[in-house]
Amino acid sequence: MGQGASLMRVIVNDVREIVASTNKEAYMKEYRAYKEASGRLEAARLKNAALQQHLEMTKANVYMQADLLRQQKEKLDFQIEEYANMHAIDSEFFDKHKRVAEHMKQHAANVTHNTSLASSSDEASDEPPTKKAAEDPSSSTSTSTH
């Protein structure tokens, strides 16, 4: 029976060795899969961090552009409002200004014409010619403004 017990020990040792090596192979296989998954996870984390940073930069850029566009819109709105107000005022103002300018031109032409006539016909008069022209009823024009 010595040989049977010895054979039994060899078989048990061989089975233990096979089980241990099978467990070791399975463990190593799982370990390699874990390492590979960990590597992919770390790569994904790095890529995610880079994408997050790019997103933050893009977001900051968009906010900056939105702020610049808002400022530009406010400036344009102000200019449009200013233009509209000026256009509304300008038509009335320029009409009045045009009437006054025409009146001044006409008055200056009359004064110049009357001055030249008065100086040639009344050189011995005591009053200055401009005063005569101003008093002359033919040189006065309607000064009614609305």
Q: Which structural class should the secondary elements be placed in?
A: mainly alpha
Taking Cα atoms only, what radius of gyration do you get, to the nearest Å?
53 Å
Give the overall form: rod-shaped
Our count of helices gives 2
Reported for the largest beta sheet, the result is: none
The low-pLDDT segments are 139-146
What is the distance, rounded to the nearest whole angstrom, between the alpha carbons of the first and last residues?
A: 142 Å
Mean pLDDT: 79
Structure explained in plain terms:
There is one protein chain. Helices cover 87% and strands 0% of the residues. The protein has helices at residues 2-121, 129-135. The chain has one domain. It starts with a helix and ends in an 11-residue tail after the last helix. The chain is an all-alpha fold and 146 residues long. Residues 34-86 form a coiled coil. Residues 137-146 have a biased composition (Polar residues). Keywords: Coiled coil. Residues 106-146 are annotated as: Disordered.
